[in-house]
Structure formats: structure tokens, C-alpha cells
Automatic annotation (TrEMBL):
Cofactor: thiamine diphosphate; Mg(2+)
Gene Ontology BP terms: isopentenyl diphosphate biosynthetic process, methylerythritol 4-phosphate pathway; terpenoid biosynthetic process; thiamine biosynthetic process
Name of the protein in question: 1-deoxy-D-xylulose-5-phosphate synthase
UniProt KW Metal-binding keyword: yes
Family: Belongs to the transketolase family. DXPS subfamily.
Any one of the GO CC terms: cytosol
Sequence positions that bind Mg(2+): D146, N175
Description of how the protein assembles with itself and partners: Homodimer.
PANTHER family xref list: 1-D-DEOXYXYLULOSE 5-PHOSPHATE SYNTHASE-RELATED, 1-DEOXY-D-XYLULOSE-5-PHOSPHATE SYNTHASE, CHLOROPLASTIC
Length: 624
């Protein structure tokens, strides 16, 4: 048997591989994924599940002539291996290394970039229509998971594609899982298609009966074979995809390469939009990932033998976990509190809330826009909705925040996790725009805690407010300032002065308070004395404290882990201008006007001059 993996540089090699060779290749790819991702971390379970499907797609289609669009893109590792990037896997998700998502700059085989879910069908349809207008004939294939299919955009695109009069193939990779168990009516519907004994019985009966009829039976069966899926349409009530205008094929065993190739070849020859329903097992081939696909969806380095995470040092509790526990406690006291997630219960720390208060917990699927307006509805009818959401995914729901929540001044609490740099996921996932996209909206209060204790206090305050509130906090370990801070009162909406000094005033927001504090401590030994303000609020700013503290200090620095444009520093600058205090020497430190790449968060903070050392240098330069 040829060892295709060791020599693979392009998918062309698959075209003349036997089915047995492809099965052997699938086995080797799984070993390769396991060996590499156990060292680098990454999205393991989704990739283990999609090995055969990716091999079949690249066997039947001709990338990059044919276009393949991967929804979310976290499952594109196998595609990367087959398209000449195997040798880069030791650098996966590291700074300047291989991205964890499709990147046009990385390969001509990555025709469209993804990271946020449910975009693939819209993109594929656009690509297909452009192809038609250019008079070309290549295939366009969108590969979308059952989780991503819960996103509204996917349905907007299916609705359009069904009557767009173009050739398009949508492959649904149905593994019954989003990151956690998939939820909702669509998921239940797919489950019925997958398992309905009535369907399988009827299908088998029809094939059996036709085959039994002597002479004509075989011919009739051949005709019926063609019409089988349409036949199914009549036999299974409401195949929604057929109703939308697609030819539905499935369910297909997503781990049978031979069957997959036959089905894909057939789809390639069908005119109009085709929907192929493929069934796979998330985590396939690695027992720990099959058993616990949520844990192995996106995982850090782990030990292959035991499936246990390799942890470095003693870590403090994460902000997500502190948030989750606090909300459980608050919900005990206040029965109006309900929690909402858009398919991220574990990532946002809501798992305990979900099991303790199942009736007050809502996983709405990957549907951030709906989650926000749903929260607005809950609030308008007397409840206290807390929507826990990653900063980057809330971008989706900007208009709902404006139009459905803030315009009506409804008391929805946005707990914005993963704000700032998130690290290895990179461009698509950094939460560096939320201050910019929220501060200009009337009625909203925006806070960021300097440490875990402050997050607890901010959440207590937020659920008491009768208007929209956002609390932003970063990925990972919480900080702890209890050794110096003795006032955690949030209700007075005041900033906190952590250190006083006459040379420089550093006004920091959220996680950056630590950087300001450490820089000030080190500068003291060089006889440079800094005031350090923990702003707590980006909106409304505690104008009084800030202006008083700045009044006798010439040098002012603002620090944030948001983009500088439209961020926290801009708010301070506007305040100083408004108060005629623009005779100051001011530096606004934050992230630049570009999409920040992937890499370790600390490394990126150094790279963008936002670490303690860089802040010290900024201050020295300012003073000199
Ligand atoms: C808009 C948006 N919200 C949330 C996420 C986080 N997220 C990434 S993958 C995923 C689950 C995707 O499930 P599915 O599409 O079924 O893919 P699978 O991992 O099962 O292969 C979620 C919720 C995202 N990427 N984009
Ligand atoms: C692909 C995706 O969007 C998620 O899987 C994301 O990578 C999760 O990030 P965390 O690891 O920060 O939860
Ligand atoms: Mg899935």
C-alpha cells in the first residue's frame, strides 16, 4: 500500500488513489492530527470527524479550480494537509505560523476566509454567481456543520440559493454537535432524517419490491434510483431542503469514502442547487474525543495516552468561571435573572447555570442576532436577561443592540467574554472592537473589571440597573488586586485611583490596569512617579475623578486592549478637549488600525508594544 501522507503536496495525488489507499491515508491523517494537535493545541474533534469527507471532496473535485468554502473553518486542517501545508503543522496557530482557519494569503486552495459561523452558503452562492457571469463551469462547494446551520445567515442563503438558478453544492456535515450538544428544532429535524425508521423502511421496501419484479424490475429500479431522492421527498414529510429548491441527497455515511465519492460525483453532475446530508462522528478515531467532543473541540496541548490537558503552573480561576458562579448565586436571590448563550455554554462559563436553572437558561444556537432581540423581549416583559457572548461574535448583533435593546433602554446585561486579544484563533476572533462599537450607542453603560473580585461586583451592579449594561473581560485567568485595592464599590460609578504620582497619569481600562500598575512600580525606582487610574467605566466616564487627577499632570497615557480608533482613549481625549485640558502631552495606547494576527496573547501584546516593558519605554520617551 502506498504511503500517500508522507509525499502529499497537492490533492492531485488522490485522483488515482484506490479506495483502500484512501482508507489507509485517512488512518494516517488521524494519527498525524493527534500527534500534532496534542502538542500545539487546536480544533481536534471536528477535524478527526471530517477526514473521510475531506478526502472524498478532494478526490472528486479539482481544487483550486473548483472552490471549496469551509464554514467556520475550524475543521479545515485535513484540507490544509492535502493542499501542501503538512510540513507547517508544528507551527499551527503560533505567531507567524500556520493559521487555524482558511487564509487566502496561505494557499490558493483557501478561496474564502472564515472563522465566524454560517457564512459559507452566502459566500459560495456569490462565488457561483460570479462564475456564471464569467461563463465558467467549475463547481462551488460549501461545507457547513449542523451547528453552523443553526445560524440565521445560513437560512437566508439557502432561501436565496433555492431560486438563484445556479449550480451549487452544499454539504452538511452533521455530527449532532455544535461545540456542545446541538440544539433546536432544526437539529431535531436532522435527527429525524437521520434515524426515522419509517423513512429507512419505506426506502428499503421500495428498492426491495422493484428489484423483485422480473425483467422490468431492474430497469425500473434504475429509473427509481435516479428518482430515489425525489421519491423520498414524497415519502418523508417535509424535506425542507427540497421545499427550498435543493436536490436533497442523504443521509450518507461520512466515514465511508467509497460511498462519499459516488455521492459527490453524482452531485457534481446535477443541475441547480444540491444539498448533501452527511453523517459523521465528531472526534472519530480517538476515544477521548469521541466520548467528550466538547472538551476536544478546541483544546490546548494534551497527553494522548490519558487525554488529559498538559497544564502549565498554578492557574488562577478564569473570568468566565467567576462570571458563571456569580450568576448562579445572583439568580438564587433574584428570580428574574435568566441566562442566554449562542451555542457557547461551556466557553462562557454557563454550564452550571444551565444544570441548576434549566428553565431559566436558553441556548439559542449560533444565533447572536436572535439572542440579543430575544433578550430584549425577555427584558421588556419584566425579566433580567444576561447574555454571555464572546466580544467577536457580538459584532454580528450590532443593530440588535442598537435597535432592540438600547433604543428602548431595556435592562439587558451583556457579559462580553474574550474581549481584547484571544491569542491563537487570531484575526477572526480577537475581541478588539467592542469598546468602539458600543460607546457611541446611547443609554448603554460599559464597564471592565481589573480583577475577578471587581467582575463579581460589576455583575451585582449590572443586574440591578434598569438599563443596558456591558461588562467586558478577557479570555483566561483572572487577575487579583485585593492586596492593594480596598474599595470595590461599583454603585457610585467611580473610577479608582490605585497609585498617585506627579509625573505621569496612566488611565487604564480592564485588564490593562495590571500593565499600568506594573509599569508604574518599576518606574518609581527610576524616580518617575505615576498616577494610575482604574477607569472601571468607559461609559459614562467618571469625568470628575479623571479631570481632578489629571489637572496638575502634564503627561497622560491611556491604556486599552481595544483598537485605538474609537476606543477608550478616544473617549478620554474627547473629555480632555471638552474640558479645555488639551494642553497636555497625551499618548493613546491600544491596538493598531489593522487585523491582528494569531499567536500567543503575551507575545502579541509585546509585538504591539502593549506589555509592561513597552509602556515603560513609552513613558520614558514622553518624559524626555
Ligand atoms: C458567529 C459565531 N458564533 C459562535 C462561534 C463559535 N463556534 C465555533 S465552532 C462552533 C460550533 C460549530 O458546530 P458545527 O458547525 O456543527 O461544526 P463541528 O465542530 O461540529 O464540526 C461554534 C459555536 C463562531 N465561530 N461564530
Ligand atoms: C472556532 C471557534 O470559534 C471556537 O471554537 C473558538 O475557537 C473557541 O475559542 P475559546 O477556545 O476561546 O473558547
Ligand atoms: Mg457539528
Amino acid at each position: 500500500m502506498r504511503d500517500l501522507l508522507s509525499s502529499i503536496k497537492s490533492p492531485d495525488i488522490l485522483k488515482n488513489a484506490s479506495d483502500e489507499e484512501l482508507v489507509y491515508l485517512a488512518e494516517n491523517i488521524r494519527k498525524f492530527l493527534l500527534n500534532n494537535v496534542s502538542k500545539t493545541g487546536g480544533h481536534l474533534a471536528s477535524n478527526l470527524g471530517i477526514v473521510e469527507l475531506t478526502l472524498a471532496i478532494h478526490s472528486v473535485f479539482d481544487s483550486p479550480y473548483d472552490h471549496i468554502i469551509w464554514d467556520v473553518g475550524h475543521q479545515a486542517y485535513v484540507h490544509k494537509i492535502l493542499t501542501g501545508r503538512k510540513h507547517l503543522f508544528h507551527t499551527l496557530r503560533k505567531h507567524n505560523g500556520l493559521s487555524g482557519f482558511p487564509k487566502r494569503s496561505e494557499s490558493k486552495h483557501d478561496c474564502f476566509e472564515t472563522g465566524h459561523s454560517s457564512t459559507s452558503i452566502s459566500a459560495a452562492l456569490g462565488i457561483a454567481k460570479a462564475r456564471d457571469l464569467k461563463g465558467k463551469k467549475n463547481s462551488v462547494i460549501a461545507v457547513i456543520g449542523d451547528g453552523a446551520l443553526t445560524g440565521g445567515m445560513a437560512f437566508e442563503a439557502l432561501n436565496h440559493a433555492g431560486h438563484a438558478n445556479t449550480d451549487l453544492i452544499v454539504i452538511l456535515n452533521d455530527n449532532e454537535m455544535s461545540i456542545s450538544q446541538n440544539v433546536g428544532g432544526i437539529s431535531r429535524y436532522l435527527n429525524r432524517l437521520r434515524t426515522d425508521p419509517k423513512y429507512f423502511k419505506v426506502k428499503d421496501d421500495v428498492e426491495y419490491i422493484l428489484n423483485k419484479i422480473p425483467a422490468v424490475g431492474k430497469a425500473m429500479y434504475k429509473t427509481a434510483e435516479k428518482a430515489k431522492d425525489s421519491l423520498k421527498y414524497f415519502l418523508v414529510p417535509g424535506i425542507i431542503f427540497e421545499e427550498l429548491g435543493f436536490t436533497y441527497i442523504g443521509p450518507v455515511n461520512g466515514h465511508d469514502i467509497k460511498e462519499l465519492k459516488v455521492v459527490l460525483q453524482r452531485a457534481k453532475n446535477i443541475k441547480g442547487p444540491v444539498f448533501i446530508h452527511v453523517i459523521t462522528k465528531k472526534g472519530k478515531g480517538y476515544k477521548y474525543a469521541e466520548k467528550n467532543p466538547d472538551k476536544f473541540h478546541g483544546i490546548g496541548p494534551f497527553d494522548i495516552e490519558s487525554g488529559k490537558l498538559i497544564k502549565s503552573g498554578n492557574k488562577r480561576e478564569s473570568y468566565s468561571s467567576i462570571f458563571g458562579k456569580t450568576l448562579v448565586n445572583l439568580a438564587k436571590e433574584d428570580l428574574r435573572i435568566v441566562a442566554i448563550t449562542a451555542a457557547m455554554p461551556s466557553g462562557t462559563g454557563l454550564n452550571d447555570f444551565a444544570s441548576i436553572y434549566p428553565d431559566r437558561f436558553f441556548d439559542v444556537g449560533i444565533a447572536e442576532q436572535h439572542a440579543v432581540t430575544f433578550s430584549a423581549g425577555l427584558a421588556s416583559n419584566g425579566l433580567k436577561p444576561v447574555f454571555a457572548v464572546y466580544s467577536t461574535f457580538l459584532q454580528r448583533a450590532y443593530d440588535q443592540v442598537v435597535h432592540d435593546v438600547c433604543l428602548q433602554n431595556l435592562p439587558v446585561v451583556f457579559c462580553i467574554d474574550r474581549s481584547g486579544l484571544v491569542g491563537n484563533d487570531g484575526e477572526t476572533h480577537h475581541g478588539v472592537f467592542d469598546i468602539s462599537y458600543l460607546t457611541h450607542i446611547p443609554n448603554i453603560t460599559i464597564m471592565a473589571p481589573k480583577d475577578g473580585t471587581e467582575l463579581i461586583e460589576m455583575l451585582k451592579y449590572a443586574v440591578k440597573l434598569n438599563s443596558p449594561v456591558a461588562i467586558r473581560y478577557p479570555r483566561g485567568e483572572s487577575d487579583d488586586f485585593t492586596f492593594i485595592s480596598d474599595n470595590y464599590c461599583i454603585e457610585d460609578r467611580k473610577a479608582e485611583v490605585l497609585l498617585s504620582g506627579k509625573d505621569v497619569c496612566i488611565i487604564a481600562f480592564g485588564k490593562m490596569v495590571r500593565t499600568a500598575y506594573e509599569a508604574a512600580k518599576r518606574l518609581k525606582s527610576k524616580n518617575i512617579h505615576c498616577t494610575v487610574i482604574n477607569a472601571r467605566f468607559a461609559k459614562p466616564l467618571d469625568e470628575k475623578t479623571i479631570l481632578e487627577e489629571c489637572s496638575d499632570i502634564k503627561n497622560i497615557i491611556t491604556l486599552e486592549d481595544n483598537v485605538v480608533k474609537g476606543g477608550f482613549g478616544s473617549e478620554i481625549l474627547a473629555l480632555l478637549c471638552k474640558s479645555k485640558k488639551n494642553d497636555k502631552n497625551i499618548k493613546i495606547l491600544g491596538l493598531p488600525d489593522k487585523f491582528v494576527e494569531h499567536g500567543d496573547t503575551e507575545e502579541l501584546m509585546r509585538y504591539y508594544n502593549l506589555d509592561v516593558y513597552s509602556v515603560i519605554e513609552h513613558i520614558k520617551e514622553m518624559i524626555s
